[in-house]
Specification:
Layout: H1 2-9, H2 14-31, H3 38-50, H4 54-71, H5 74-90, H6 94-105
Helix pairs in contact: 1-2, 2-3, 3-4, 3-5, 4-5, 5-6
């Protein structure tokens, strides 16, 4: 995940960023623990939003929601709500976006 983030944040080639992201997601699947799947999905959603691929971001968000529920980790659920607010906003689903954003802003963390 760190290498993927580094490539993404330093503006490396799209291919290199995607390769690092795919590797991070593959390692997370191999480990098999839901909590390790959250960050690679988070990074993938950021890429998809940046590329204006909102249908793909919605699909990735659904996967992230499933993994976050499986962790039963409040922080994973908060991160998922935060990403959900952004994905729904950019997808034109403003009512859902607002609901999630309000939940994130009202979270004690």
């Amino acid at each position: 995940v760190a290498l993927h983030a580094l490539y993404y944040l330093t503006g490396d080639t799209k291919e290199l960023i995607q390769e690092a992201g795919e590797r991070a997601r593959a390692l997370a699947r191999e480990i098999g623990l839901p909590r390790y799947k959250i960050e690679p999905l988070h990074m993938l959603i950021l890429e998809q939003i940046e590329q204006a691929d909102y249908p793909a971001a919605l699909n990735t968000l659904r996967e992230m929601e499933q993994e976050a529920r499986a962790t039963d980790d409040p922080l994973a659920l908060l991160i998922t709500d935060k990403m959900g607010a952004q994905v729904h906003h950019w997808s034109g689903r403003h009512e859902q976006s607002r609901k999630l954003a309000e939940r994130v802003l009202g979270h004690p963390a």
